[in-house]
Structures are given as C-alpha cells and as structure tokens.
Amino acid sequence: MKTATERLVKRLFEAYADKLVPRLPTVHKHNVTARARYSLEGGSTGNPDCGFLYLLVRAFDRKSVFEIGTYVGTSALCMGAATRLNGGHLVTCDPENYECLPEAQKDIIRYLHMDQEQALLTLKQEGAEIDFVFADWQPSLASVELINELGSRDLIFTAHDYVLPRDKGVVAYELMSEHYVRAKDCTWFLPDEQPIQVTPEIQIQQCTAAMIPNELLGQWV
Ligand SMILES: C[S@@+](CC[C@H](N)C(=O)[O-])C[C@H]1O[C@@H](n2cnc3c(N)ncnc32)[C@H](O)[C@@H]1O
Q1: Is any atom of ligand 1 closer than 6 Å to the C-beta of 45?
Q2: How far is the CA of 158 from the centre of ligand 1 (A)?
Q3: 116 pocket-lining for ligand 1 (C-beta < 6 Å)
C-alpha cells in the first residue's frame, strides 16, 4: 500500500514532470561541477530532494521562497527555476560565501551573505512575506519565531536530512511542530524508508520533511 508521502509525490510528479524531467541533468551537473571547481567535499542537495522541492514550489504556486544554507546552490537553482515559472523569487542565506550561484539566475535568486536570523531580520525590515521555507541547516528557535511573523498564512515548510534518530531535519521537524503558530493546521509528509521511484530512472524525495497546510492539500492527497 502507498504511503501518504508516496501518493503525494507521485501525483505532483504526474502533474509537473514535463518541465522537471529535462531540468534534472542540469541540476546534477551543477551539483558535481560546482563542488569540483572549489574542491568541496561536503554534500549538496541531491536530485531526489531537489526534484521534490521543485514539485512543491511549482504545484503550490510558491512566489517567495526562503532557503537556510546556500552552500553551492543546487537546491536554490532548482527551486529558483520552479518559482520563476510562478513569477516568484527566492532568497537564500549562508554565512559562508561559496560563490557558486549561476549568473543566469541572479535576477530571481538573491543571496544574503549572513546567517539565518540576520537574513530573516533583513526581510522583516523590508516588509517581506515568505510562503515557502527550505531549511538545509538546522533552524534556530529565533528563526522559527521570525517565520511565525514573516510567513504567509499558507506557508509550506521543508527541511533536509530528516534522518532518524536526530539529523538536522528531525530537529527542524521537532522545533516547527512545537513552535510554529499554525502547526496544528498542517500535515507533515515525512520521507519513506526508500526514495520514491517515479519512473525506472528517476527517484523523487529521499530525506526531506515537508509540512503543508491542510487547506492546500485538496486534490493532492
Ligand atoms: C548542507 S549545506 C546546504 C546545501 C545546499 N542546499 C545546496 O544545495 O548546495 C548547509 C549550509 O548551511 C550553512 N550554514 C551554517 N550555519 C548557518 C546559519 N546559521 N544560517 C544559514 N546557513 C548556515 C553552511 O555554511 C552550509 O553551506
């Protein structure tokens, strides 16, 4: 029997595969070449999770994406491509500047060379609203409180590395479940034990936890 996460992923993929599938090789190439150029050994977000983020941003028409942890920008590149199709933009922050974001995306991807709390405070001062968060670094409690202030009523929250017993995505899940003001009106979609095979060649969603407002779920569950 399919899990709720598998059902959601497969429905999203059926609806938006046409634009995502041709993009996946470019995303993988950026991941590999950007890290190789600077001899970076640390992990960048892999294609199954980038694909899942793309589908969420695209299907739920997200227009103001906020990312914690740019690193080489693989996930920013993928979510940026999705939000561009929605007429939106993305802000990503990292206290370390790896300078890997592609020039061609700089019209819609804004990089803030600062930590998560400074970045959220900057957006708050600008009067910004955010409708999608991807945390690829553990969010702090202060950040969750800022997300409570800046987040749209239908904010979607996602976190990478939901790996038991307590990788950073699990900590993000715990923090958001306890401190996010609208948590009780949302449903978590947690990763299955294996990535979801949507075609013989393509896997989507490996270790990203997604919290989606119930009011958005309608046709997708
Ligand atoms: C796993 S990497 C992110 C990978 C990225 N999503 C990608 O696709 O390349 C985590 C990043 O979080 C950054 N980081 C560390 N502390 C941070 C903080 N307080 N706020 C924002 N980013 C932080 C690290 O410098 C690192 O580059």
Answers
A1: yes
A2: 14
A3: yes
Regarding the beta carbon of 95 and ligand 1, being less than 6 Å apart is answered yes
Supply the range of the domain harboring residue 41.
Answer: 4-220
Please report the beta strands in the chain, taking only residues with DSSP state E, as ranges in sequence order: 64-68, 89-93, 109-112, 130-135, 151-160, 186-189, 196-197, 203-204, 208-213
Q: How far apart are CA 22 and CA 178, in angstroms?
A: 39
Dist. CA 149 → ligand 1 center (Å): 22
Report the atom number in ligand 1 closest to the C-alpha of 93: 21
The response to whether residue 74 sits with its C-beta less than 6 Å from ligand 1 reads yes
Cα separation, 200 vs 122, in Å, equals 44
- What's the CATH number where 39 sits? 3.40.50.150
Chain segment 175-216, per-residue pLDDT in tens: 999 999 999 999 999 999 999 999 999 999 999 999 999 999
Specify the residue for token string 């790896």: 98
Instruction: Output the six-digit token pair for 194.
Output: 């294996």
96 CB under 6 A from ligand 1? yes
| pLDDT tens-digit readout, 16-54 | 999 999 999 999 999 999 999 889 988 899 999 999 999
How many structural domains comprise the chain? 1
